[in-house]
Design a protein that fits this description.
mainly beta; five-stranded mixed beta sheet; 49% strand; globular
Length: 107
């Protein structure tokens, strides 16, 4: 089943501003999937360094599935200067409506 939520929030905002980070910063995302389908958390252009999902720890993956009603703590280190989008690969068609948060990294 696909996720067809009516809205999505990042840091409590419907239309978030880019998040400023420095190159090499560790970014921690507390990701919660309210469903109904599985979400595929991903940062475009970077690996997810560590994903903690309950007792399960996963390292160095591109995408991590989060089931409906589930959550994960996702750590990603921004590798270089530029723009990096945090998205749900299951909902890339929602990008025009803001289903992404942009990390803008500077040296």
């Amino acid at each position: 089943q696909r996720n067809d939520a009516e809205f999505r929030l990042f840091n409590g905002q419907l239309a978030p501003e880019p998040v400023a980070v420095r190159t090499g910063d560790l970014v921690r995302v507390h990701f919660v999937n309210v469903g109904p389908g599985t979400a595929a958390a991903h940062v475009v252009g970077s690996l997810l360094d560590t994903v903690v999902d309950g007792d399960r720890v996963t390292r160095a993956v591109q995408t991590y599935p989060v089931p409906p009603g589930g959550g994960a703590v996702i750590d990603v280190r921004i590798p270089e200067a530029g723009e990096f989008m945090f998205v749900d690969h299951d909902q890339l068609g929602q990008l025009p409506w803001g289903f992404a948060v942009k990390f803008v990294a500077t040296p």
